[in-house]
């Protein structure tokens, strides 16, 4: 897929007709060669922004996949970094790919909706995972994140501005979500992956209800849209007492 090392169309079709967990187990060996992996440019921009807010002691990469976010946490955390994901295949690749440099790194297989940790983290990050949660699941997810953060801890993730209505990007995402809804109406098990359900306004209200104070930071590396708004923001939600 867009790369000789990426998955073939046949492999993607098999993955798309699987459950989310099984699909990512199959995709894992080639995941880093697909557009689904968060770009180094985004990772570097987030790491730079977080460095100015830290340092932090313990960090958690939520839905870590092959460990790109763990690399970010290793730059801004002093003591320990943990990656959590429910795909055994993705974790296996992460263990092989990530070479600990600095803080100790550990990997845990678990569902983000039922995290097996106490309030032991100062920073939780996540990259590109929220489309795998239905809107009704987000309040529970935010509650889980709050439960593993120490008082004053932060939950950070980048958000890309949505494409303008009528633009090619708009129709692409709309078409993808429509195709996914048809697929899930006709085929079991479902594969939850939607691009247009994670809206910044709704997310801010959900974080507030879960006990967070949210700040937005423009990532200057990506510039601004014609209306002056940032192309990419970093959401930083601080856990309230």
Automatic annotation (TrEMBL):
Domain of life of the source: Bacteria
GO molecular function: methyltransferase activity
GO biological process, one term: methylation
Residue ranges annotated for the Methyltransferase domain, each copy included: 60-153
Enzyme Commission number(s) of this protein: 2.1.-.-
Matches recorded under SUPFAM superfamilies: S-adenosyl-L-methionine-dependent methyltransferases
UniProt xrefs under InterPro entries: Methyltransf_25 (IPR041698), SAM-dependent_MTases_sf (IPR029063)
UniProt KW keywords: Methyltransferase, Transferase
One Pfam family linked to the record: Methyltransf_25
Protein name, per record: Class I SAM-dependent methyltransferase
The species this protein was found in: Streptomyces lancefieldiae
Lineage: Bacteria, Bacillati, Actinomycetota, Actinomycetes, Kitasatosporales
């Amino acid at each position: 897929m867009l790369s000789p090392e990426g998955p073939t169309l046949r492999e993607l079709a098999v993955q798309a007709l699987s459950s989310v967990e099984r699909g990512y187990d199959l995709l894992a060996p080639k995941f880093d060669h697909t557009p689904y992996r968060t770009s180094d440019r985004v990772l570097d921009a987030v790491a730079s922004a977080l460095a100015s807010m830290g340092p932090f002691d313990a960090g958690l990469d939520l839905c870590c996949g092959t460990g790109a976010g763990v690399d970010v946490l290793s730059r801004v955390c002093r003591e320990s970094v943990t990656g959590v994901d429910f795909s055994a295949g993705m974790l296996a690749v992460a263990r092989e790919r990530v070479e600990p440099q600095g803080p100790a790194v550990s990997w845990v297989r678990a569902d983000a909706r039922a995290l097996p940790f106490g309030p032991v983290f100062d920073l939780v990050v996540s990259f590109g995972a929220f489309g795998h949660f239905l809107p009704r699941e987000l309040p529970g997810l935010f509650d889980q994140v709050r439960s593993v953060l120490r008082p004053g801890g932060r939950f950070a993730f980048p958000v890309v501005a949505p494409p303008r209505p009528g633009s090619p990007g708009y129709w692409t995402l709309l078409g993808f979500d429509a195709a996914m809804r048809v697929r899930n109406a006709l085929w079991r098990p479902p594969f939850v992956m939607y691009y247009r359900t994670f809206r910044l306004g709704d997310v801010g209200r959900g974080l507030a209800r879960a006990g967070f104070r949210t700040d937005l930071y423009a990532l200057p590396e990506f510039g601004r849209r014609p209306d002056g708004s940032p192309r990419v923001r970093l959401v930083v939600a601080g856990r309230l007492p």
